[in-house]
Amino acid sequence: MKKFVSKANDENLKQNLKMESTTNLATPLIQIFVAGALAGMSFLALNNLDDLNLPSESFVAFFTAAGLMARPIRQLSSLNAVIQKGLAAAEDIFISIDGSPKTILRAWSYQKTSGRYKHKECYL
């Protein structure tokens, strides 16, 4: 039994480390993606500034709104880890539900009993 528990703990540790490393890797990758998208937008907008015919207020408002999108995108990346844990748990539950029922066979021995049963002070 001790060997089984140790093996289960090692497997849980391995899976939790995988999950944490994936979660911690996702946030910087998304930040790099957002920074690249903002840089690309800035490059295209500034190169075609004359063709856009945008007033300066609209230009600044657009880039402010684009810059503020980084935080919700990071929050979505942390949501991904929660969804993955939920899907893994659901998979385990459905495997348990869909699996064949386990029968427990035990040898029971019953002893025949004998005796008298007497009612005292029974009221209706």
Label this structure with key terms.
124 residues; mainly alpha
Low-confidence stretches: none
Largest sheet: none
Beta-strand content bin = under 5%
Number of domains: 1
* Estimated helix fraction: over 70%
On the 0 to 100 scale, the average pLDDT is 81
Q: Span from first to last CA?
A: 54 Å
**What is Rg?**
32 Å
Number of strands: 0
**Count of helical regions:** 4
The 3D shape can be described as elongated
Instruction: Find the structural class using helix and strand composition.
Output: mainly alpha
The succession of helices and strands, N to C, reads HHHH
Can I get a quick summary?
This protein has 124 residues and is mostly helical.
Per-chain topology:
Elements: H1 2-47, H2 49-52, H3 56-68, H4 70-98
Q: Can you offer a commentary on this structure?
A:
The radius of gyration is 32 Å and the shape is elongated. The chain has one domain (2-98). The chain has 124 residues and is mainly α. The model has no long low-confidence stretch (mean pLDDT 81). It is built from four helices and no strands. α1 runs antiparallel to α4.
